[in-house]
Design brief:
GO molecular function, one term: S-adenosylmethionine-dependent methyltransferase activity
Helix content: 25-40%
Organism: Thryothorus ludovicianus
Oligomer: single chain
Number of helices: 6
Shape: globular
Distance between the termini: 27 Å
Family: Belongs to the methyltransferase superfamily.
Structural class: alpha/beta
CATH architecture of the largest domain: 3-Layer(aba) Sandwich
Keywords: Methyltransferase, Transferase
Number of domains: 2
CATH superfamily of the largest domain: Vaccinia Virus protein VP39
Strand order of the largest sheet: 3-4-6-5
Order of helices and strands: HEHEEHHEHEEH
Radius of gyration: 16 Å
Protein name: EFMT4 methyltransferase
Number of strands: 6
CATH class of the largest domain: Alpha Beta
């Protein structure tokens, strides 16, 4: 769900000239295509993250920034996620795993703390390893966000398997 974020364009400006962005909103994708028409390496597609229309092993990197958080927005207890939200999360992650090439990376940027998010990511069925890091400016009053990196074809650490 790229939304109207400038991230795709920013990546393009940094030299990543082969970027595909998706969102379920046709209006959003139309606006982004128009806004960045001058960047031919940026591709835009209307798509549901739960049913990606890409072939298996299509991407070296899949990057999401807050998209998975939408799946949890109506959850009232992050310790006890509803079966519906858990199933939706699993479906999306299975799709991400499917479209990643061997050795590819899935990068997730979120405010979701590891004790809430890692159990979703740490599934042997996805065929990836899992690392995470807290990010922020060091100010105790500031919100921190978390970077999760999953590498396709590498095993999960035994402590993550136990989640």
């Amino acid at each position: 769900g790229c939304g109207n974020s400038a991230l795709s364009h920013d990546l393009h400006e940094l030299g990543y000239t082969d970027v595909t962005s998706i969102d379920f909103s046709a209006a959003c994708i139309a606006a982004m295509r128009a806004r960045y028409a001058h960047c031919p390496g940026l591709r835009w597609a209307v798509m549901d993250i739960r049913a990606l229309a890409f072939p298996d092993a299509s991407f070296d990197v899949v990057l999401e920034k807050g998209t998975l958080d939408v799946l949890m927005v109506e959850e009232t207890d992050p310790w006890h996620v509803s079966p519906q939200a858990a199933a939706a999360m699993h479906r999306v992650l299975a799709e991400v795993s499917r479209v990643l090439r061997p050795g590819g990376c899935f990068i997730s940027i979120t405010f979701a703390q590891p004790h809430f998010r890692k159990p979703h990511y740490a599934q042997e069925a996805f065929g990836w390893s899992l690392r995470h890091a807290a990010c922020g400016d060091g100010d105790a009053a500031a919100f921190h966000y978390f970077l999760y990196v999953m590498r396709k074809g590498q095993p999960l650490h035994p402590r993550d398997v136990a989640l």
